[in-house]
Amino acid sequence: MDKILDIKNLTVKVNIGKNELKIVDNISFALSSGKTVGIIGESGCGKSITALSILGLLESNIQITYGTIDIEDICVSNLPVKELRKICGKKVGMVFQEPMTALNPVFTIEQQMLAPMKVHMKISKQEAKNRCIKLLKQVGIKEPELILKNYPHQLSGGMRQRIVIAMAIACNPSLLIADEPTTALDVTIQLQILRIIKKLVKQNKMSLLIISHDIGVISMLAEEIIVMYAGEIVEQDSKDNILKYAQHPYSVKLINAALELQNNSEKLTIVEGSVPRPGENIVGCKFAARCEFCTEKCLSEKPPTILKENSIGKVKCWKYVKD
Q: How far is CA 167 from the centre of its chain?
């Protein structure tokens, strides 16, 4: 199956004063045509930085220092900004986590929806406007003609996020990236937004990269799950294998905590300690200080990424390395 997205050995660093700190550490994964992949992990683990790296939207003090990112066989990590902008929007759509900041407060919804179509689609202004109306209907907005005349501040958070989704798919991209698409929305609206994304991905035959700290969100949309911790991929496998047979101690605790919350358990799984900060001098496993299975080897040597037994998945943990 053709790869829509192929990331190899991606390393991203941030410059803070005179210090250069690694925030994404040598990650690799691929996304095939028509498939969905979810990335899960705590805040600060590198999920959003990975997504922004794909689109070339990193801050000026953050750079890709190693590795490649290919979109449909085009290496976008080395493209000039002008060339990259021809791809973003046309081949890749992005749903950002905060709809208020994703929309420009000084332009109407119509002006903002028309903008990417003018750049990437050879259609008349009337055809573009008709497409705007059609897209708004697809994301469940009533009276789209009226909504097009509004400014973002006149709409609710749920409405704004629906519009952001409509804009993301306006030019028929083959890949949709959704970065925490339900953040700051109430529970009922969250479910509506997730159902819209799921429907559109299937309807438009897109590939989806969904990013979230919520395993419920990931499990609803993704076929494959990538678990990130402190800038690294510690486990990746099919959704069922992660949810039922997670192997990395961090993955296991994430799943257990989510199930306990779902079942209203009186006692919740707690991962003692905190995520190591970028720049910390950790020789061995980054999760070692919080892991109940930690050994001397975990503290002194970086664990390799190995293939799981009876699975196509991978795990980065000394526990599964045979002597």
A: 17
CB 14 within 8 A of CB 61: yes
pTM over 0.70: yes
Distance of CA 63 to the CA centre of its chain: 18
C-alpha count within 13 angstroms, C-beta hemisphere, residue 132: 26
- Answer whether 51's CB lies under 8 Å from 177's CB: yes
Where do we find the tokens 């009876």? 310
**Sign of the alpha-carbon dihedral angle for 260, 264, 265, 271:** positive
C-alpha closest to that of 234 among 222, 249, 245, 224:
249
CA-to-CA distance for 60 and 27, rounded, in angstroms?
21
pLDDT in tens, 39-86: 999 888 999 999 999 999 999 999 999 999 999 989 999 898 888 888
Inter-residue long-range contacts of 275-279, CB under 8 Å, 24+ positions, other chains counted = 275/42, 275/44, 275/45, 275/229, 275/230, 276/230, 278/14, 278/21, 278/22, 278/23, 278/231, 279/19, 279/21, 279/22
Tens of pLDDT, residue by residue over 132-171, are 999 999 999 999 999 999 999 999 989 999 999 999 999 9
| Residue 10 to residue 310: CA distance in whole angstroms | 27
Taking alpha carbons only, the member of 214, 227, 218, 221 closest to residue 261 is 214
- Neighbour order of strands in the sheet with 36-40: 92-95, 175-179, 207-212, 36-40, 224-229, 232-238, 314-316, 305-307
SS3 (DSSP) at 207: strand
Q: In terms of DSSP bridges, do strands 36-40 and 207-212 run parallel, antiparallel, or are they unpaired?
A: parallel
* H runs (alpha helix) in 121-245: 125-138, 144-147, 157-168, 187-203, 215-221, 239-245
- What CA–CA distance (Å, rounded) separates 84 from 82? 6
